[in-house]
Amino acid sequence: MTAELSDVDFGKISRFVHEIYGINLHAGKKELVKARLGKRLRDGNFRSFAEYFRFVKSKKGAAELIRMIDSLSTNLTSFFREETHFHKLRKIIPEMAGSSSRYGRMPGSFRIWCAGCSTGEEAYTLAITLREALNGQNIDPQILATDISTKVLKTAMAGIYQSERVKSISNPLLKKYFQIGQGEWEEYYRVKKELKDIIKFTRFNLMENPNFNNPFDCIFCRNVMIYFDKETQKKLIGRFYNLLKKDGWLFIGHSESLTGMTHRFKYVEPSVYRK
Ligand SMILES: C[S@@+](CC[C@H](N)C(=O)[O-])C[C@H]1O[C@@H](n2cnc3c(N)ncnc32)[C@H](O)[C@@H]1O
User: Fold this and answer.
1) Neighbouring C-beta atoms of residue 187, cutoff 10 Å
2) Would you call 147 a catalytic residue per the annotation?
């Protein structure tokens, strides 16, 4: 039986999640919170949401806090999602990666931050696009792929996907960058080393101040900010601006926009901005 989630306990949990992770759990999400955390309560033998929440905030509750966020975050993603962004990127890469003086830096590397990478499909799509665009050029492609959820990062790092999930990848690219499983793995595709080698997956909370050493050519933060309120989005956009190289690019989700927000980016086209 699922415990009752009172408005008071829901308020406490949603305020806490908002404060620490920026995720906006408005009143309409109460049933979702009840269902998803209800399972955590049953697994951990907690009698009420109040008891569960007290535990999560205690010193002993650190691991459960991560599990709580894992179960509250929405991780929907796919390979080549919102594909026009990858066509755009394909055009941008050779121009930016090859130039030195125009962008005030030495050529030699191309760095992308995939912020809110979920189960890895977006980061691997970026890696495919980079490999294809930089073919034969002496440039070191690097992708930093981050998410708050350890559960999705585990899947991302494994890089093994069921055939259903790779349907949006063209056959030539699938053959080139994936190994098809044998025997009991027949229905699975494994990302090849040449893609894995250029991606670093790591846990990072977008509410924290990043201390990444090198600036990025591009930041992809798509379908993540929709879960944050305007104030949190504005702070994040300001950080992205500072973390980009001169003339660097920001890609946000197709249904997201910076309209109505004070920011320093130049608008390029819907969901694409430039420093
Ligand atoms: C809907 S998925 C989007 C995945 C991918 N960017 C795409 O567009 O296909 C949103 C991701 O943002 C992550 N996320 C939510 N809040 C976060 C935070 N505060 N810090 C880092 N990642 C967060 C979630 O765990 C989830 O994997």
Assistant:
1) 11
2) yes
